[in-house]
C-alpha cells in the first residue's frame, strides 16, 4: 500500500493551526506546513513511518516560531565584558529608552526651531548641553554628532586636514577592534600621516620638529585597548597643545571612550575625560556615545566653535549624521550627567561597572542551586571569584573583581561536554553567553541585573544537552 496517500492536505493541517496563524500570519504558516509535509514525504520515500499528527503539528509550530523570531534578540551578557561590542555595548538608561520611544512615535522638533518656527539644526539638541557638561557652558564650545567615533575621527580629519599633514606619535597608531586603524582612517580622510617618535617614547621636540608648511593639525589618540609599560614617554596634552598653538595649528584628541564623570572618585580605574582634554588645550575632542558614556551608538565631536562650524560644512557630515532616535537617547543620557549623585543608579553602564563584588557573589549563591539542578550529574557548579573587564578598549589592563558561576564537567575529558554546555546555554529562549577558561564554563554575573534574576532561573528548565 502506498502510505503517501495518508499525508493530510495542506488546508486540513492549516485548519488546526488557527492560533499559530494569529501569531505569525497565514503566509508564513502555510510555508511551514508545506515544508514539513515535503519532509515527511521524503521520509516515506526512504522507508520512514508516516509521522503522527501531533508530531507533525509540533514540527510545524517549531519551524514557524523559529522563522517568526527576531534575528536581533536580547541575550544575557555573562562574558565578563561590560561594554561588549558584539553584544551591543552600553545598555541605555530608562530615561533614554523612553525618549527614543517618544521620538519614534510622534513627529518631533528634530530640525525645527520652536521659537521662530524656522528651520533648526539637529546638533543644537545636544550642543549646548555638551558645552555645559564639558566646558562649564563656555559659549565658544560647540558639538556635532555623527554615527560613531570612527566617523567622528574620519570627518574631523577630512574637514580640518584634507590634502595636508597630521602629526601623530608612533605609540598611538592603534588598531581598535573591528578594523578601525588610525593610519587607514587617515588615508581614507585624505590626510597624510606624519609619524613621530618611537613605539614606546615620544618627546616634545618630536612634535615641534615635525611641523612644516603642510601641517594641518597635531593629533593625540587614546591608546584604548593596549598599554605600553616600562621605559615609556608620551607628551602631556598640555605640552602638545602649546606646541600646536605656537604654530597656529589645532590640536585634536581622539579619546575613544570618553566618560564625563570622574572614574577614580567612584572607585574605578582613572580614565581621561573630555573636560580634562579641553582644559589642557585640546581644540577638538572625539569620543563614542556607547562606550563609557553609556548612551546610544554615536560619535561626539566637541570643541572650538569655529572648527565645529567647519566640520559641519563638510559634505561627509551629511552622510554620517545620526537620526532622531539616536539624538533622543543621547540627549536623555547627557541630561542624567547633570545629577552626578544619582548617575550610578540611573545609568546602567556605571551601575554595572561599580557593582560590588560581594553583591555579585551573593547573587551567585542564590543562583547556584538552580543551575546545579539543571545540569544534574553532567557538571558541578560553584561560585568563584573572577575578574570582569570594562570592554570596548577602555582601560585594557584594569580588571574589576567579580564573581562567576563556574561549571566544571564531571567527565575526565571535559572538552566535548564544555562545548555541549556552552551551546545549550546559547540555545535558550534568551541566549546566555559565557566563556570557557581553564576547562570550565564561566558565567560572570556582573551584568545579570536583579530584575532579570527570575527570568534567568525560569528558563533553565529549557536547557537541553
Ligand atoms: C573605540 C574607539 C574608536 C572607534 O569608536 P566607535 O564608536 O567604535 O566607532 C576610535 N578611537 C578610539 C581611541 C577608540 O577607543
Level-1 CATH class name of the largest domain: Alpha Beta
Number of strands: 15
Name the hetero compounds present.
pyridoxal-5'-phosphate
Strand order of the largest sheet: 2-10-9-8-7-3-6
Count up the helices. 19
Share of residues in strands: 15-25%
Number of spatially distinct domains: 3
Overall radius of gyration:
28 Å
Classified in CATH, the superfamily of the largest domain is Type I PLP-dependent aspartate aminotransferase-like (Major domain)
Query: What's the architecture of the largest domain in CATH terms?
Result: 3-Layer(aba) Sandwich
Please, what is the average pLDDT? 94
- How would a textbook summarize the main sheet? 7 strands, mixed
What proportion of the residues is helical, as a percent range?
40-55%
Q: Could you say what the CATH topology of the largest domain is called?
A: Aspartate Aminotransferase, domain 2
Q: What would you call the shape?
A: globular
Sequence-ordered SSE layout with sheet pairings:
Blueprint: H1 10-15, H2 18-24, H3 26-45, H4 53-68, E1 76-77, H5 94-105, H6 124-135, E2 141-146, H7 149-161, E3 165-169, E4 175-176, E5 180-181, H8 182-188, E6 192-196, H9 204-210, E7 215-221, H10 237-246, E8 251-256, H11 274-279, E9 284-288, E10 299-304, H12 305-313, H13 315-320, H14 324-336, H15 340-346, H16 348-353, H17 357-375, E11 379-388, E12 400-409, H18 415-426, E13 432-433, E14 435-437, E15 440-444, H19 453-458
Parallel strand pairs: 1-13, 3-6, 3-7, 7-8, 8-9
Antiparallel strand pairs: 2-10, 4-5, 9-10, 11-12, 12-15, 14-15
Helix pairs in contact: 2-3, 3-4, 5-14, 6-14, 7-12
Bound molecules: pyridoxal-5'-phosphate (PLP).
Amino acid at each position: 500500500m502506498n502510505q503517501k496517500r495518508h499525508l493530510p492536505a495542506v488546508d486540513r493541517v492549516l485548519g488546526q493551526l488557527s492560533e499559530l496563524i494569529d501569531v505569525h500570519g497565514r503566509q508564513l504558516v502555510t510555508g511551514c506546513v508545506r515544508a514539513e509535509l515535503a519532509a515527511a514525504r521524503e521520509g516515506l520515500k526512504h522507508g520512514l513511518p508516516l509521522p503522527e499528527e501531533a508530531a507533525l503539528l509540533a514540527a510545524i509550530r517549531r519551524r514557524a516560531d523559529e522563522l517568526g523570531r527576531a534575528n536581533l534578540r536580547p541575550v544575557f551578557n555573562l562574558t565578563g565584558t561590560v561594554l561588549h561590542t558584539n553584544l551591543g555595548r552600553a545598555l541605555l538608561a530608562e530615561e533614554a529608552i523612553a525618549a527614543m520611544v517618544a521620538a519614534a512615535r510622534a513627529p518631533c522638533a528634530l530640525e525645527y526651531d520652536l521659537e521662530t518656527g524656522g528651520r533648526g539644526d539637529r546638533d543644537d539638541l545636544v550642543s549646548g548641553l555638551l558645552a555645559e557638561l564639558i566646558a562649564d557652558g563656555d559659549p565658544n564650545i560647540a558639538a556635532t554628532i555623527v554615527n560613531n567615533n570612527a566617523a567622528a575621527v574620519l570627518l574631523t580629519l577630512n574637514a580640518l586636514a584634507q590634502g595636508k599633514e597630521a602629526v601623530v606619535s608612533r605609540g598611538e597608531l592603534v588598531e581598535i577592534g573591528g578594523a578601525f586603524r588610525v593610519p587607514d582612517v587617515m588615508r581614507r580622510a585624505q590626510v597624510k600621516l606624519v609619524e613621530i617618535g618611537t613605539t614606546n617614547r615620544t618627546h616634545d621636540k618630536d612634535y615641534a620638529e615635525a611641523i612644516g608648511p603642510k601641517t594641518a593639525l597635531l593629533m593625540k589618540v587614546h591608546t584604548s585597548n593596549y598599554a605600553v609599560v616600562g621605559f615609556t614617554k608620551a607628551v602631556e596634552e598640555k605640552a602638545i597643545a602649546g606646541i600646536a598653538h605656537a604654530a597656529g595649528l589645532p590640536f585634536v584628541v581622539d579619546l575613544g571612550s570618553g566618560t564625563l564623570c570622574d572614574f577614580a572618585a567612584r572607585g574605578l580605574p582613572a580614565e581621561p575625560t573630555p573636560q580634562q582634554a579641553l582644559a589642557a588645550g585640546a581644540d577638538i575632542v572625539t569620543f563614542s556615545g556607547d562606550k563609557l558614556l553609556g548612551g546610544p551608538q554615536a560619535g561626539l565631536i566637541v570643541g572650538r566653535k569655529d572648527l565645529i562650524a567647519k566640520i559641519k560644512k563638510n559634505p561627509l557630515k551629511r552622510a554620517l549624521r545620526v537620526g532622531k532616535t539616536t539624538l533622543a537617547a543621547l540627549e536623555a543620557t547627557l541630561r542624567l550627567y547633570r545629577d552626578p549623585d544619582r548617575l550610578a543608579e540611573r545609568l546602567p553602564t556605571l551601575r554595572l561597572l561599580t557593582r560590588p563584588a560581594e553583591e555579585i557573589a551573593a547573587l551567585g549563591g542564590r543562583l547556584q542551586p538552580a543551575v546545579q539542578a539543571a545540569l544534574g550529574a553532567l557538571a558541578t557548579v560553584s561560585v568563584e571569584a573572577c575578574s570582569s573587564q570594562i570592554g570596548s578598549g577602555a582601560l585594557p589592563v584594569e580588571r574589576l573583581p567579580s564573581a562567576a558561576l563556574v561549571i566544571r564537567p564531571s567527565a575526565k575529558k571535559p572538552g566535548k561536554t564544555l562545548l555541549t554546555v556552552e551551546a545549550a546555554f546559547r540555545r535558550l529562549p534568551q541566549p546566555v553567553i559565557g566563556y570557557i577558561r581553564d576547562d570550565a564554563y564561566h558565567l560572570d554575573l556582573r551584568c545579570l541585573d536583579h530584575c532579570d534574576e527570575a527570568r534567568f532561573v525560569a528558563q533553565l528548565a529549557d536547557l537541553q544537552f
